[in-house]
Amino acid sequence: MKKIIISEDDFQKFREFFYRKVGISFENDKRYFVDKRLIERIELTGANDFSDYFIMLRFEASGQELQQLINVMTINETYFFREEYQFKCLVNSILDEITRNKKDTSPIRIWCVPSSSGEEAYSIAIYLLEHWPGMAKWDVEIISSDIDSVMIERAQRGHYSSRSVQYLPATLLTKYFKPSGDGYQICEDLRSSVEFTCVNLMDSVEMRAYRKFDVIFCRNLLIYFDDLSRRLAAETFFDALNPNGFVCLGYSESMSRISSLFRVRKFPEAIVYQKPGVDL
Amino acid sequence: MPFIKKNNPTIDSYEHEHSRDLNELAIQLADGNPVIRRGAALNLAQHQDASEILVDRLKQDNDTSVRDAILTTLISLGDSFAVIGLVECLRSEDAALRNEVVDAMKQLPEKVAPIMNSLLVDSNSDVRIFAVNILESLRHLQVETWLDRVIEDDPHINVCATAVDLLGEVSTSTSRAALIHLRSRFPDEPYICFAVNLALKRIGEDKGT
User: Fold this and answer.
1) Contact B41, B55 (CB under 8 A)
2) Closest residue of B to A188, CA-based?
3) Parent domain of A34
4) Chain A within 8 Å of B100 (Cβ-Cβ)?
């Protein structure tokens, strides 16, 4: 079989294309990671070389290969109750403020992006059921989105490894999961409580369907974006949120360094960001 | 469980109304509703020739969220009209706008670099201070050289004070001579002496030299 090589020019061309489509810019130190996955896709699609593959990628009307490529290029490491302090903040501080200010009884809408394999969205559902008394009074809608369609399928299946559930208290593991094969299957009630969708945050047309959220969890995604893509993501979140809605970012991320659209809110459990009310 | 699920998120009819046409977007950019103006500003990113319209709106819009969207699109377009327009806004009386523009220009290192020399010798000392503020997080190899030149030559103490503050964070031993020269230019200004000594200390030079 012919050995496929990704030249410096190929890498630059691919990097620019991927950035324009997805908003993720690979630096030179990611070269090995990118080359390896590109070569895998070139071989799997039967393309002769990078040029052949790149032409197909750019002009394929269905976008299926681009989706496959996104699936292999994005990172999907997560686990249940990761950065739990924010879930505590959600049930102890954020939701009470939201419900206090709500002028109707419409559902509270929570958006998790990126979804990865669903651990975060299900963790929120479990946390609400276990720790938020407001569940007796309010309906909650959880939507969890990712650019990786394989991850969305995995999230919908709800089957997890022991490693993925290792930080869940044993009582909750017993209550919401059943041992299944070499891992755990999440219960049907929880599985059906979250809507999973495949989206590209950088696609402004797709994003128009994502509106009227009260809380957005976007943790450990923006660190992979460059300055402009982070700024565009902030614009997307601003438009997706109701006035006074909240954004929760990852531990090492700060909205203040990205955009002045949001105000910083310091709660006892966490620092989060809030869309101002009617007047900014 | 009181979780509810709808089918896939759908686009509201209002959201469908965003135009893609340059002229229509230009009209929407002046709409009374800031939500429509924001949408227009973000959609104008598809038009390479939209910078002038956006800059005109930026100068007069009072809504922070609209201005933010305009700046995001100007950063994305990043052409000469965008950069010239941003520089014009540095002269605005509106302090909030100036700060927003400084932040935006920090995100355009390759576009701002060619005009940095002229910004740093602008006749308006406030503009020179804003130019130094832009250097604060401009990812460009020449930042230290530019700052050295400011503290060597700029006659205004506030411009030099802003630059030496920043040099305290980014300087290397190449700034040593410029720092010492600055101290000798303003020997009776305690803050300048303090900031120079601090910068020298951070780069491991003897402050008494």
Assistant:
1) no
2) B1
3) 8-73
4) yes
**DSSP symbol at A150:** H
Which residue has 């979780």 as its token pair? B3
- Can you say whether the dihedral through the CA atoms of A59, A64, A65, A71 is positive or negative? positive
CATH fold for domain B17-107? Leucine-rich Repeat Variant (1.25.10)
Same domain as A225, residue A95: yes
Helix (H, G, I), strand (E, B) or coil at B16: helix
**CATH 1.25.40 holds for B111-209:** yes
Give the nearest chain A residue to B73 (CA atoms).
A232
User: For residue B65, how far is the Cα from the chain centroid?
Assistant: 17
CATH number of the structural domain spanning residue A69: 1.10.155.10
Encoded amino acid at A145, one letter: S
* Whole-number Å distance between alpha carbons of A224 and A240: 21
N residues, chain B: 209
Whether the bond into A114 is cis, omega within 30 of 0: yes
- Per residue in A118-132, pLDDT (tens digit) is 999 999 999 999 999
Nearest CA among B181, B137, B141, B142 for reference residue B160:
B181
The runs of H, that is alpha helices, within B78-142 are 80-90, 95-106, 109-119, 125-135
Q: What is the ipTM of this complex?
A: 0.82
Helices (H), A177-278: 188-191, 204-207, 227-240
Q: Answer yes or no: do A141 and B65 touch at CB < 8 A.
A: no
Same domain, A110 and A37: no
Q: pLDDT digits over A220-269, tens only?
A: 888 888 889 999 999 999 999 999 999 999 887 899 888 889 999 999 99
CATH number of the domain where residue A108 is located? 3.40.50.150
**pLDDT for A60:** 81
Answer whether A260 sits within 8 Å of B76, measured CB to CB. Answer: no
Using CA atoms of A151, A155, A160, A164 in order, give the dihedral in degrees to the nearest 10.
70
pLDDT of residue A280: 42
Record the pTM: 0.83
Which two tokens mark B81? 């009209």
Check A189 against B1: CB less than 8 A apart. yes
Contact B72 A260 (CB under 8 A): no
Q: How far apart are CA A98 and CA A216, in angstroms?
A: 13
What mean pLDDT, rounded, does chain B reach?
A: 90
Final residue of a structural domain among A17, A51, A73? A73
Q: What are the helix and strand counts (H, E) for chain A?
A: 12, 10
Nearest residue in chain B measured CA to CA from A256: B103
